[in-house]
């Protein structure tokens, strides 16, 4: 069970790193209310913003919500972004209000990300990596998220409230690679 404190630390830590909300902002929530994606969106209410809830993911409804509410921030998974920009109504939809898209829950193919960055030209993209069961957003990739960025396929950097370490089960070690000391710092191979 999570404490109020653990949830608040996760909200503040992830938001401070992703910079995905601000005073007066509007965040679109498309994930179930128990999902970790909601934690990041709850921060919008802490700074005087608004949450807009989609009943379920339906591209028509979501495009309408973006337009009607001038959504600034949204969370998504790769297939949702793909369904949005491939939707027949997308070319006629004003998505210029969207300033931040946080995605996760599945690997993001480079072609899908490139197309999404072109489709939402005013948006910064942030990949979140975490787990609903732990209520922790472990890492986020924000500043490195530029078309063709060297770290574009990375899981990101540890968020402000998280520490990461590489733990490898002894039987899973590759014999052709030297083992890393457990306290080694730096990038994971």
TrEMBL record:
Q: Which species is listed as the source?
A: Rhodococcus olei
Q: Outline the extent of the AMP-dependent synthetase/ligase domain.
A: 1-163
UniProt name for this protein: AMP-dependent synthetase/ligase domain-containing protein
Signal peptide (from-to): none
Task: Please give the InterPro entries that the UniProt record associates with this protein.
Answer: AMP-dep_synth/lig_dom (IPR000873)
The UniProt entry, under PANTHER family, shows: LONG-CHAIN-FATTY-ACID--COA LIGASE (PTHR24096), MALONATE--COA LIGASE ACSF3, MITOCHONDRIAL (PTHR24096:SF267)
């Amino acid at each position: 069970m999570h404490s109020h404190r653990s949830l608040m630390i996760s909200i503040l830590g992830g938001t401070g790193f992703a910079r995905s909300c601000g005073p007066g902002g509007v965040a679109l929530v498309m994930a179930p209310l128990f999902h970790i994606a909601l934690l990041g969106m709850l921060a919008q209410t802490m700074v005087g913003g608004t949450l807009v809830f989609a009943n379920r993911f339906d591209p028509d409804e979501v495009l309408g919500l973006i337009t009607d509410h001038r959504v600034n921030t949204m969370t998504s998974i790769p297939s949702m972004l793909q369904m949005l920009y491939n939707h027949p109504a997308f070319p006629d939809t004003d998505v210029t209000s969207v300033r931040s898209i946080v995605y996760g829950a599945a690997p993001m193919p480079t072609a899908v990300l490139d197309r999404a960055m072109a489709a939402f030209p005013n948006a910064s993209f942030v990949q979140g990596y975490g787990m609903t069961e732990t209520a922790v957003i472990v890492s986020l990739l924000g500043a490195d998220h530029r078309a063709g960025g060297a770290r574009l396929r990375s899981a990101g950097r540890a968020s402000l409230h998280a520490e990461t370490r590489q733990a490898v089960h002894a039987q899973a070690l590759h014999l052709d690679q030297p083992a890393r000391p457990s306290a080694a710092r730096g990038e994971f191979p």
